Amino acid sequence: MAGDDTEDKDSKTEEATEQKLRKAREKGDVPSSKEVGNTMSIFALFLLTIFVLPNAAGPMTAALGALISDAATMQVGAGETGVNDLSGILRGLFSPLVAALAPAAAIMIGLALFGVFLQGDVVVSAERIKPKLSKVSPMAGLKRLFSSETAIEFLKNLAKVSVVATIGTVVAQRAVTTIWDVPGFVPETLPSFLRQEIALILLGSTVFLVPLAVFDVIWKRAKWHKKQRMSMKEVRDEHKDSEGDPMIRMRRDQLRRKRAQQRAAQTVPTATVVLTNPTHYAVALRYEPGQDAAPVCVAKGMDLMAAQIRKLARENDVPVLENKPLARALHASVEIDQEIPAEHWQAIAEIIRYVMDLRREIAVRPPEGTVEHEEG
């Protein structure tokens, strides 16, 4: 089985097609990094420590002090007087806490959503929560345990713990030194001082976690794209399925016609002459003496495209001539941006000579089999 898995992975040498990637996203299979969320959570705690806790600390401290100092005299039950000192103090204690938690929750949720949108692919799919036997398979669990992904995750977690522990140790040692060794340290400032030190630990951790999160995003995306790779057989099968889909085929034809029309709008004005069937075929030819060794096809088309070429030619004063057999032969034998075949040189030379004489306002008869095209 392991050999089969290796062979299957080795055969997936082709980059995933847009259709394969779209289907993966529809199933909720998108690259995502937990490190972005972890970094945003630490940064959210830093913001809470700096901006939210100072506003809640004062009322909470006052309520806690009242609870301790009046513990012996307060009335716990309502009794006949209807007084309940404890409930009032507890409300005073927890009201600031609740008031602080509301913006805290908003900040945490906002940054978590920002982290998700920062990674790009936002997909909501029930496919991700469906139970899968592979997730509880002992063999699959062992393979994940000894995989390169597990090793990298272990190294990332080890790096996070080591760096955060180092930052915490350094800040804690400095805090202890400040409290015990700095003359004139006022105990009343201890809560504010500790809050600043905790904020410093959180900020330092965030600074470290940002590059780790960037690395994790890049690694997860590379791993995801590698997982989506396809074998040549899968590419061929998908191509067959797509070719058989009428909607995809129609969309492809529409795009092809649009590109042809856009190209014709640029090239037909440069043509020397347009040959028609008169309605079913149109071939635009360019011949510039000294520039072109032989006449070049700059546009061609059938039916609607032929009508578009004739319209563009008239709008740009390009002569439109009718020569049924020559127009059909050129349409079948020459591609756009190619020189016309040698067997048609003589006939085309006579037509171009006729067009040049018209430009010089010389009264000449058109070549045999050729007439000026008239729209019906």
Automatic annotation (TrEMBL):
Keyword field: Bacterial flagellum biogenesis, Bacterial flagellum protein export, Cell membrane, Cell projection, Cilium, Flagellum, Membrane, Protein transport, Transmembrane, Transmembrane helix, Transport
GO terms (BP aspect): bacterial-type flagellum organization; protein secretion
UniProt GO cellular component terms: plasma membrane
Membrane topology annotation: Multi-pass membrane protein
Keyword Secreted listed: no
Primary location: membrane
Superkingdom classification of source: Bacteria
Segments forming a coiled coil: none
Keyword Lyase attributed: no
Leader peptide range in chain numbering: none
Transmembrane annotation, as ranges: 42-68, 97-118, 198-219
Compartmental location: Cell membrane
InterPro entries, sorted: T3SS_substrate_exporter, T3SS_substrate_exporter_C
Residue span of region Disordered: 1-33
Pfam families assigned to the protein according to its UniProt record, in alphabetical order: Bac_export_2
SUPFAM superfamilies registered for this protein in UniProt: EscU C-terminal domain-like
Biased composition (Basic and acidic residues): 9-29
Function: Required for formation of the rod structure in the basal body of the flagellar apparatus. Together with FliI and FliH, may constitute the export apparatus of flagellin.
The family this protein is said to belong to: Belongs to the type III secretion exporter family.
Protein known as: Flagellar biosynthetic protein FlhB
Gene source species: Roseivivax marinus
